[in-house]
Amino acid sequence: DVALTMVVINGFLYMLHFFLGDPVVPGWITPAIPLVMAYLEGYPIGPDRTKALIALQMEVAFVFLVLGGTGLAFKLVKIIPTSLKAGIIFGAGISAVISVIQTRFPSYPVSITIGAIVAFYTLFSVHFKKAAKTNKFAYMLSNVGMLPAIIIAIIVGPIAGEIPVPKIEWG
Asked: How many CB atoms lie within 10 A of CB 51?
């Protein structure tokens, strides 16, 4: 229950910046993965680690809302040299890909492969960018980043037998 609640809250807060017009926050998670993982290593797996992650997410959400709401995010991004921003994001991206390949790919090869294909298509395809100019649904998908790839991977996982079909009980 706590995990599902946090996924919903995280999803809402993750999209909130976009709805408020802040262009800064979408890429924060990739460079932060090594730092978040190092931080969480200090807590035992279980409720304590979950609480630490929830607290960290809430603190980060607060900081981002303040930075975005006050316009300080734009000023902060302007003073950091482009080469430094590029290096951090590029290095974090490589680190994230290596981490996924080493830890998750062996267990979920079909889901990850299909999700990656969808992500590459919706994020980088010239064909998809052209379609987004004339098709409202494609335009909407182009504005939500990795979400289409994640949804497809979640659907493919049970079909491929890599994860069990979730049993959802409301109430």
From this structure: 12
pLDDT per residue as tens digits for the range 18-32: 666 555 545 566 667
Q: Phi and psi (nearest 5°) for 161?
A: 75, 15
- Residue 142's CB is within 10 A of a number of other CB atoms, namely 18
Residue 161, Ramachandran bin (φ over 0: left; ψ between -120 and 50: alpha; else beta): left
47-70 vs 2-19: helix axis angle to the nearest 10? 10
Residue 164 and residue 141: Cα distance in Å, rounded? 27
Question: Can you tell me whether residue 171 is helix, strand or coil?
Answer: coil
Q: Which two tokens stand for residue 10?
A: 């995280």
Q: 28: which DSSP letter?
A: S
Cα separation of 50 and 45, whole Å?
A: 8
Contact 56, 39 (CB under 8 A): yes
Diameter over CA atoms, the chain: 51
Residue 49 vs residues 41, 42, 57, 100: alpha-carbon distances, Å: 8, 8, 12, 20
pLDDT in tens, 76-91: 888 989 998 888 878 8
Burial class (CB in 10 A: 0-12, 13-18, 19+), 66: exposed
User: Hey, what are 117's tokens?
Assistant: 């294909």
